[in-house]
Amino acid sequence: MTAIPQPRKSPRQLRSQHTVETILQATARILATHGYAGTNTNLIAETAGVSVGSLYQYFPNKNALIAALHDRHDNQMLDVIDQVLNSNPAATLRERVAAIVQAMLHAHLLEPALHRVLEREFPLFDLPREHSRADQDIHRRMRHLLEFHRDEIAQQDRDLATYVVLRIMESLVHAAALEPPAGFSPAQLEQAVVDAVMGYLGTPAARPAPRRTAAKKAARR
Questions:
Q1: Cα atoms found within 13 Å of the Cα of residue 180, Cβ hemisphere only
Q2: How far apart are CA 10 and CA 57, in angstroms?
Q3: Is pLDDT at 6 greater than 70 in this prediction?
Q4: CA–CA distance, 48 with 79 (Å, rounded to integer)
Q5: What pLDDT does residue 215 have?
Q6: What value does the mean pLDDT take over residues 184-197?
């Protein structure tokens, strides 16, 4: 497996966190505009309004910055799911799935050029799911959601269902944001993704009516 570039250290104080976020925002803009070849740490530091030395406190090179952008994206998706799960406790599963898909698509459309570069040119800089805390947290949140709404779905293996639902969302949202088909509105694309997820989950099979025994039949006569 290709080694994923790592940051030198993680920011702990609020001011340091703000600095790192500013650096990542600058990296995102430059990478989306100039591509990998036109991106360098000097330009990133200048755009972020920090010294190159401050940048190097956290990131050894631009590859580590690109890996951090992948991690930042995963945490944004985790925040999206948390916001949906923490709102409207009376919502149905379909309503929650629709809210998650809408928020995910909106988040991708904010920086489509950046996501296009990250997904097409640097997928290997994204941590494998088994090593990504954000991905693991997303899986746990979705698994809990399906378990909470188990009476609304037909899939009995909720572990497998969690995997499939997340892959459907991820694949279709990326496609809708990065390569949207002509002639369809964002609302139509959102609805199509929701329909795909709910179509897979299905509805619980109707339980057969209990059979009446001979004694019950006799008692009714």
A1: 16
A2: 10
A3: no
A4: 24
A5: 47
A6: 92
